[in-house]
């Protein structure tokens, strides 16, 4: 199958070249968007990342160019207009699970760094400043961790925080996970979780129901010492309300690996231009905010698994004209 691969970084090429078997891949550095979609002409599939624009405008051009399959090299699919894809008869594939540990471990790394102010300590030591004032943390052992979404990644995070660190686990998910219940976690409503947790980590998908789940009223209910970690999707957090909550000391600290408007920022080097997004720039000024640029997935194991599943999705579509169940994304199953 001829695949047009967008937003190709050197590490993507390496992972796909090692895994590649029978497909003919053209790598484009460009981000997929209406202006670059015509590059897909002459291919049967496009391969896209979370930063690509898969809105109706792009899909119209892809369909007209003869594309039949959209290979998402991500678990999340909130960045594609599924109704528009189906309207064009485009089949959409994703990588439902690659390494839940990659994202869970990154969430915990962020929580630990924030709690012990490692981002500040590192800068101080480099400048020969060994003063400890301002670096005081707390023992996480014995505190309460609140996990929103207990699927693959949430369960991996729960295992580290509960059995691992000795934290009390409060979790929230419409579908309880027996593996997480077996860790002694209590399923509670979102209000109880927000009110009682010392650490809140988000691991649910972005859907119309979860959009701005953490908004002004949520921040008002959280402990003023609470640490919030979002490695899931930027739209789960109302960023303007988060800035206000940090200004007013309503929460203790925040770590973000994702941001609502990350499409214009992440996965590119803007160091010569500066950050033009004022809300994001404001977030960067807080000493108790720690931000990474959507790197939760970025481990060697996850990249290999993404490459292998993406290519096997292409092979299955080529051979059978359809995809294995959990890998197929349809509007009926996923936007109901
Ligand atoms: P999963 O599908 O295994 O688990 C998601 C869980 O969230 C499910 O149990 C579901 O019932 C629950 N859920 C759905 N709506 C909810 C709500 N409103 N409140 C509470 N729980 C809710 O997904 P997985 O693999 O654990 O991934 C979770 C999310 O992590 C993905 O949706 C994606 O947005 C994000 N992610 C981030 C990455 C990064 O690099 N930072 C990489 C991969 C995924």
What does this structure look like?
It is a single chain. The protein is an alpha/beta fold. The protein has 13 helices and 13 strands. The protein has helices at residues 10-19, 56-64, 82-87, 100-115, 118-126, 152-164, 178-181, 190-196, 216-221, 239-247, 278-284, 300-320, 331-334, and strands at 2-5, 24-27, 45-48, 69-72, 91-93, 144-148, 168-172, 186-187, 199-202, 227-230, 253-256, 289-291, 328-329. The protein has a 7-stranded parallel β-sheet with strand order 8-7-6-9-10-11-12, sandwiched between helices. Strands 2-1-3-4-5-13 form a 6-stranded mixed β-sheet. Strand 6 (144-148), helix 6 and strand 7 form a beta-alpha-beta unit. Helix 1 (10-19) crosses helix 12 and helix 4 (100-115) crosses helix 6. The longest helix is centred in the C-terminal third of the chain and has 21 residues, at 300-320. The site of 1,4-dihydronicotinamide adenine dinucleotide has 31 residues, from helix 4 and helix 6.
What is the topology?
Elements: E1 2-5, H1 10-19, E2 24-27, E3 45-48, H2 56-64, E4 69-72, H3 82-87, E5 91-93, H4 100-115, H5 118-126, E6 144-148, H6 152-164, E7 168-172, H7 178-181, E8 186-187, H8 190-196, E9 199-202, H9 216-221, E10 227-230, H10 239-247, E11 253-256, H11 278-284, E12 289-291, H12 300-320, E13 328-329, H13 331-334
Parallel strand pairs: 1-2, 1-3, 3-4, 4-5, 6-7, 6-9, 7-8, 9-10, 10-11, 11-12
Antiparallel strand pairs: 5-13
Helix pairs in contact: 1-12, 4-6
This protein binds 1,4-dihydronicotinamide adenine dinucleotide (NAI).
């Amino acid at each position: 199958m001829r695949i047009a691969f967008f937003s190709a970084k050197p590490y993507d090429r390496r992972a796909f070249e090692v895994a590649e078997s029978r497909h003919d891949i053209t790598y484009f550095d460009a981000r997929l968007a209406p202006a670059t979609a015509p590059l897909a002409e002459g291919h049967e599939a496009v391969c896209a990342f979370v930063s690509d624009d898969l809105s109706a405008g792009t899909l119209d051009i892809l369909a007209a160019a003869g594309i039949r399959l959209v290979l998402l090299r991500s678990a999340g699919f909130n960045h594609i207009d599924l109704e528009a894809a189906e309207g064009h008869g485009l089949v959409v594939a994703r990588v439902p699970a690659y390494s839940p540990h990659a994202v869970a471990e990154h969430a915990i790394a962020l929580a630990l760094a924030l709690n012990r102010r490692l981002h500040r300590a590192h800068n101080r030591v480099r400048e020969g400043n060994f003063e400890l004032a301002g670096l005081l943390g707390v023992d996480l052992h014995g505190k309460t961790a609140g996990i929103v979404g207990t699927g693959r990644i949430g369960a991996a995070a729960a295992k580290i925080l509960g059995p691992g660190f000795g934290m009390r686990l409060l979790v929230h998910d419409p579908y309880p996970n027996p593996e997480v219940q077996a860790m002694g976690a209590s399923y509670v409503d979102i209000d109880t979780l927000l009110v009682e947790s010392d650490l809140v980590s988000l691991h649910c998908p972005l859907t119309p129901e979860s959009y701005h789940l953490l908004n002004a009223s949520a921040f008002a209910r959280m402990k003023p010492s609470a640490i919030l970690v979002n490695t899931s999707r930027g739209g789960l957090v109302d960023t303007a309300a988060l800035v206000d909550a940090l200004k007013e000391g309503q929460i203790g600290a925040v770590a973000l690996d994702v941001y609502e408007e990350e499409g214009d920022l992440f996965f590119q080097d803007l160091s010569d231009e500066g950050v033009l997004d004022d809300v994001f720039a404001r977030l960067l000024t807080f000493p108790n905010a720690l931000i990474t640029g959507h790197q939760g997935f970025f481990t060697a194991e996850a990249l290999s698994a993404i490459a292998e599943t993406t290519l096997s999705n292409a092979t299955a579509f080529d051979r059978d004209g359809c995809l294995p169940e959990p890998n197929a994304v349809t509007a009926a199953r996923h936007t109901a």
